[in-house]
Design a protein that fits this description.
Chain lengths: ~120, ~110
């Protein structure tokens, strides 16, 4: 397993366009997280999946944001009608199932997808 | 509310000296406190963590201490080296441990 993979690594788009990011987690991890990180700030929680179920979603998350994990494996994060304020690094992390022999608490992050909205 | 406060935001220490970063959490039910290191162009990576049933944990030059009463936990790096230069984040779980909230980060610089 090569860890958490995110694509694309960089995306430049014009305001008003839709963008989609993909995250491929560690295969045996059933929990998946999306975070947003702006310059000089910590990762901001966006949403959380356990298998295919979206169990937590930030109250700060606009209706323009939607995430899916249809088969409990990879996940997508879509941003509709992008705004300049959406420019940020979007981080995905996966986590082993509760009670796993080791590392059940550890978030393993991907390298992120950097979004620039012009 | 769901909040993890971290300070300082920047820290510069002489190589070989110690560095301390402090965090405060608000949810008394939080029971797990990780520290992550983020290098340029990469995602955060876990460096050490502590559960609420212990007060201190060490791993070579890195240690974490926890004061549950005060809801404080700290990262200690001794004998700092140039490769310790990075941004460090504390975190704590909320909402039945499924939501992990991060602090705002500390940029640590090691002066030669």
């Amino acid at each position: 397993d090569t860890g958490v993979s995110q694509n694309p690594r960089h995306k430049i788009t014009k305001r008003g366009q839709n963008v989609t990011f993909r995250c491929d987690p560690i295969s045996e991890h059933n929990r998946l997280y999306w975070y947003r990180q702006t310059l000089g700030q910590g990762p901001e929680f966006l949403t959380y999946f356990q298998n295919e179920a979206q169990l937590e979603k930030s109250r700060l998350l606009s209706d323009r944001f939607s995430a899916e994990r249809p088969k409990g494996s990879f996940s997508t994060l879509e941003i509709q009608r992008t705004e300049q304020g959406d420019s940020a690094m979007y981080l995905c992390a996966s986590r082993a199932r509760a009670g796993a022999p080791s590392g059940a608490n550890v978030l393993t992050f991907g390298a992120g997808s950097r979004l620039t909205v012009l | 509310g769901e909040n993890v406060e971290q300070h300082p935001s920047t820290l510069s220490v002489q190589e070989g000296d110690s560095a301390v970063i402090k965090c405060t959490y608000s949810d008394s039910a939080s029971n797990y406190f990780p520290w992550y290191k983020q290098e340029l162009g990469k995602g955060p990576q876990l460096i050490i963590d502590i559960r609420s049933n212990v007060g201190e944990k060490k791993d070579q030059r890195i240690a974490v201490t926890l004061n549950k009463t005060a809801k404080h936990f700290s990262l200690h790096i001794t004998e700092t080296q140039p490769e310790d230069s990075a941004v460090y984040f504390c975190a704590a779980p909320y909402s039945s441990a499924s939501k992990i909230i991060f602090g705002s980060g500390t940029r640590l610089s090691i002066r030669p």
